[in-house]
Amino acid sequence: MSNLFWSRDFLAVAELSEKYSETHDPALQHQRVLHVLRVFYEGIVYLNLARGPGDAKKKWREMGEKAVATVAGYATSMSKWNFENKSLLLQAELHYLNGDLDPAAAMYEASIKSARDHKFVHEEALAYELHGRFCVENQMAEKGSNQLSVAVSKYNEWGATKKANDLQLYLDAINSADQ
Predict the structure, then answer these.
(1) Which of the two ends of the chain, N or C, has the fewest CB atoms closer than 10 A to its terminal CB?
(2) Which of 151, 147, 176, 179 is nearest to 166 (CA)?
(3) Is the CA virtual torsion 76, 79, 80, 86 positive or negative?
(4) What whole-number distance in Å separates Cα of residue 38 and Cα of residue 21?
């Protein structure tokens, strides 16, 4: 599931996640750290799918909104240090889905800062990437390219060279389209 997430095969992640949820006792999931991280990544997946084509947008929105609320609860009740940046990033994605572009931009930037302050370089990279994609998709190509460039550097710093290379290809395509 993790490999599919990082390669942005969001529909495959959602399908696996649904299968996982059907076979695991939800009462026990809250005791697992992996469950918390899964909810975060699923939230990003669902909110991205809700912005895409298809008949399941309402379903993805509802599941994404549930993940936003869950992670926000973790940030307040469990650990601000561990979950603040995740909550802010999900809120940014939800604002983006709702067409609230200024609050979305502010939340992306707050998530980047929180991830940096708390030394989560991989989540800082993810926040830069999602902010960059948001900018590109909303006619702010130069700012988006800058954000994506930083994301590539952060992924390399984290050691995720495949992810960095894949994102660099996307960035190169954007930059060549602008010329």
Answers:
(1) C
(2) 151
(3) negative
(4) 11
Amino acid at 129: E
Is this structure's pTM higher than 0.70? yes
Dist CA 22 CA 15 (whole Å): 11
Tens digit of pLDDT for each residue in 112-157?
999 999 999 999 999 999 999 999 999 999 999 999 999 999 999 9
Instruction: Find tokens 């912005």 and name the residue.
Output: 51
Condensed to tens digits (0 to 9), the pLDDT of residues 83-94 reads 899 999 999 999
**Residue in 110, 129, 139, 138 with CA at minimum distance from that of residue 171:** 129
What confidence tens digit (pLDDT) does each residue in 56-86 have? 899 999 999 999 998 888 777 666 667 899 9
Tell me the C-alpha distance between 109 and 140, whole Å.
15
Q: Which of 22, 25, 14 is nearest to 48 (CA)?
A: 14
Distance CA 38, CA 42 (A): 6
The whole-angstrom separation of Cα 47 and Cα 40 is 11
Query: Which residues does 96 contact at the CB level (< 8 Å), separation at least 6?
Result: 47, 51, 104, 134
